[in-house]
Design brief:
Elements: H1 10-21, H2 27-37, H3 41-57, H4 66-74, H5 78-92, H6 97-112, E1 121-126, E2 132-135, E3 141-144, E4 148-153, E5 161-172, E6 181-185, E7 188-192, E8 196-201, E9 207-214, E10 217-222, E11 228-233, E12 237-242, E13 247-252, H7 256-259, E14 265-272, H8 273-284, E15 286-290, H9 293-296, E16 299-305, H10 309-316, E17 322-327, E18 340-346
Parallel strand pairs: 5-6, 15-18
Antiparallel strand pairs: 1-4, 2-3, 3-5, 4-5, 5-8, 6-7, 7-10, 8-9, 9-12, 10-11, 12-13, 14-16, 17-18
Helix pairs in contact: 1-2, 3-6, 5-6
Length: about 350
């Protein structure tokens, strides 16, 4: 976690996250935490890393002070020790000792890769509004986008490397032609050996896509007639499948727009407002509703980075005859807030 880049007071941020994850946060604290998380990409990553540590700590077999001693003894890098000590010091004010011991083991395990444990599956999720980065056992690096999760084995023991994805991710696959890398994602299977590509396959979305940055991949899927299709992609090509109408196509385009989110950006290249709204919904954790078919067809060339939600929409509407309104969030029965909602409507028609 890079503390220098996090916006806001770290102590308060940590306290709010602990209260949120242990279920003791009230409505005002949840709202304060949401504001902090959405303040910057660094904050979203800090929240995501904290969430991963919190969830993993509940499953780790560490219950004594010997675990902390082992970590410190086996860690010879001064820079890591200094970062660990600083994180430990700040967390001590708000976390219980058993949680801290489990966190210590989790951090050590992620840096030094134990191989003597029983092989099992791990799952990592990126909460809505956050991005998570994971290093797989083979050296492959994965970026998880908002609302996504990945499941993978602690050790790739077979003749192939296989993971399961729900949502959206960008992969930089460690090259190994003898052990192909497979991504199973909501009806898609992507095969690679050593390459860079993105996959978007949210379960509730009818749009699936694969975009290739380097190398080559083969994509296997079933069409609407349950006929198996195998599509081979070249660099700067993307595959798009729209399940609502069965349209399947391969495009030659500026594919960076498909994975710019991993760099904290939203990039659009002649994209209709309907797709722009979908991307905004993911990155800002809001619901976006468009009224009027003509509005959905407006197309945009734009790049956004660090703009607030209101700034994004104000910039978009400069070049198109539409307006928008923000629907206030409602307090749910459990004390949390509903998702913020944006309604886009033609400029000559008022939103209801």
């Amino acid at each position: 976690m890079n503390e220098k880049k996090v916006t806001g007071t770290l102590e308060r941020f940590d306290e709010l996250m602990v209260r949120y994850f242990d279920g003791s946060a009230d409505a005002e604290e949840v709202k304060e935490l949401e504001t902090l998380v959405l303040a910057s990409a660094a904050n979203r990553k800090y929240f995501s890393d904290f969430k991963t540590i919190w969830e993993s700590s509940a499953r780790l077999p560490v219950a004594t002070e010997r675990a902390l001693k082992t970590v410190l003894e086996k860690t010879s890098r001064r820079s890591f020790g200094r970062r660990f000590a600083e994180t430990w010091h700040k967390a001590a004010a708000v976390l219980l000792i058993p949680l801290l011991l489990s966190t210590a083991w989790f951090v050590y395990d992620n840096y030094f890769r134990h191989t003597d444990s029983l092989i099992g599956n791990k799952s990592v999720s990126a909460a809505f509004g956050t991005i998570a980065t994971i290093d797989l056992p083979d050296g492959t690096r994965v970026w998880l986008n908002s609302g996504s999760s990945i499941t993978y084995p602690e050790i790739f023991a077979d003749d192939k490397r296989s993971v399961s994805l729900s949502g959206e991710a960008y992969f930089e696959v460690k090259s190994d032609s003898y052990h192909p890398f497979y991504v199973n994602a909501s009806g898609l299977v992507v095969k690679a050996t050593g390459t860079k590509f993105s996959v978007m396959a949210y379960e509730k979305s009818g749009i699936k896509s694969v975009a290739l940055a380097e190398g080559k991949v083969a994509v296997k899927m079933l069409d609407l007639k349950n006929k198996e299709q195998i599509i081979h992609l070249k660099p700067s090509q993307s595959l798009r499948f729209d399940r609502s109408n069965g349209q399947l196509g391969v495009l030659n385009e500026d594919i960076y727009k498909h994975y710019a989110w991993k760099d904290g950006k939203m990039v659009f290249r002649n994209d209709p407002l309907s797709e722009v709204a979908s991307r905004i919904s993911l990155q800002y954790n809001v619901d976006v509703e468009i009224t009027g078919e003509s509005v959905k067809k407006f197309r945009y060339y734009a790049t956004f980075q660090n703009e607030s939600l209101r700034e994004v929409f104000d910039l978009l509407k400069i070049s198109s005859p539409f307006d928008y309104k923000i629907v206030n969030q409602k307090i749910m029965s459990d004390g949390t807030f509903s998702r913020k909602k944006i309604i886009i409507y033609p400029i000559n028609k008022k939103a209801s």
